[in-house]
Amino acid sequence: MSIDLTQDFFTLFGLPRRYALEDAALEAAWHTLQSQVHPDRHAHLSDVEKRRAMQWATRVNEGFRTLRQPLARAQYLLELAGVDACLGTNTAMSPEFLMEQMEWREAVEEARDAAEVSELEEMHRRLLAHAREVRSHLAAQLDDEHDYEAAADTVRRLMFIDKLQQEIDEALLALEN
Fold first, then answer.
1. What is the pTM of this model?
2. What is the pLDDT of residue 11?
3. What angle do the packed helices 117-139 and 95-113 form, to 10 degrees?
């Protein structure tokens, strides 16, 4: 068994280079590769071959983690397309989007302070639905339109949405305890 450590994760898993992936296909490909490269299968080999098996297993696991998460997968596709999404430095967003984020955060804070679990749960549901819509739009930008600059902007938006989702989850957890 030999894995080319330079091939992209989609090629490694035998999947199309697309944002919209079937979870079952990714999972099946990961299990197949994992069964082939797991270091325990190579314990009887030389130290060099054991290190190679560890590299293979690490690469397979890294690829699985990247492709399994929609945001990480989108970032990876942008990277493969040669687009720097400037995720750490470009936080420029439309005033409307920023205002919406501020309103969401204020509502979360108010619901948390008032211990309104049902309100937080409703916000959680609404935000999940909104994130699904944004991911659907992102899939079109990446897979159909190949509009990587617009997709980079959408990825930055999704990062804000994911962060807000985490804040809601943390507020719910704090109220449960």
1. 0.85
2. 96
3. 150
